[in-house]
Amino acid sequence: MDTMRDRFAPVVSRLLDEDPRVAVVLAEIGKDGFVDARRKYPDRVINVGIREQLLIGAGAGLALTGLRPVVHTFASFLVERPFEQVKLDLGHQNAGAVLVSAAASFDWPEGGFTHMAPGDVALLDTLDDWTVHVPGHPDEAETLLRHAVAAGDDKVYVRLSVQSNAHGIAVDGARFLTVREGRAGVVVAVGPMLDAVLAATEGLDVTVLYATTVRPFDAAALRRATETAGTDVVLVEPYLAGTSAAAATDALADMPHRVLGLGVGRRELRRYGNIDEHVAAHGLDARSLRERIDGFLGAGVRV
């Protein structure tokens, strides 16, 4: 199966053909996927070199001229390194852009901590008015990329990962989807966490919601789920643990509830290892999730 990032250049190249407003801004990373597109549209496919602050600034400048820029590099270089430019050039100037990341939380362990960004979504949460898409499959990535580019002049972040569920689901760029229904708790699986959550909750009497658009947070879907499943909520996110805990708490503010946030831990893992070893070390494999979800929800969760 191809990866989400494999879909990125072909999809955006087609969008360049379809919409004269679309522009692409790169910082070396990913440039090989746009060789043909750059020949066709030299004024709309721009490589600024290894200059991440300029990457965001150039994207904002294009947006201010009326274009719809798609800005791409690794997550650590797209959100963390140029965060001041994301805050000011895009946010303060109210300039819309589509930021598309790769390498996610720990997708390239050999790159070390400089190439890891488990705090990217939490960092964007310090700013207002961002839509955040976290696809769990290449088909979903393609759909959400198109949604992002078509979103007027909004500020959108699309988080691509090599981690993937086995099968894609028809997503709409807005709602959480109900994948399984139960009565003893709600588990929200974000993006590539769905397969592990379904395996972890097999035989448990829980509702599983699937989230690929996490900002805005679908409070209405969570509230509907709690009407039959109760107000114990587990969030399983492929980035910093607890990133969406405040959003879930806000959604249930008028009722007694408990929220458990599972995700990437704050402690830095200083051995490279491989992706599966990082998943297990952060307790995001199916066996670890089962223990943590079962322990939180209690014996009554078993069917």
From TrEMBL:
Please name the InterPro entries in this protein's record. Answer: PDH/Transketolase, THDP-binding, Transketo_C/PFOR_II, Transketolase-like_Pyr-bd, Transketolase_C
What are this entry's molecular-function GO terms?
Answer: magnesium ion binding
SUPFAM superfamilies in UniProt: Thiamin diphosphate-binding fold (THDP-binding), TK C-terminal domain-like
Q: What is this protein called?
A: Transketolase
PANTHER family according to UniProt:
PYRUVATE DEHYDROGENASE E1 COMPONENT, TRANSKETOLASE-LIKE PYRIMIDINE-BINDING DOMAIN-CONTAINING PROTEIN
Q: In the record, which residues are listed under signal peptide?
A: none
Q: Which SMART domains match?
A: Transket_pyr
Give residue ranges for domain Transketolase-like pyrimidine-binding. Answer: 2-167
One Pfam family named in its UniProt record: Transket_pyr
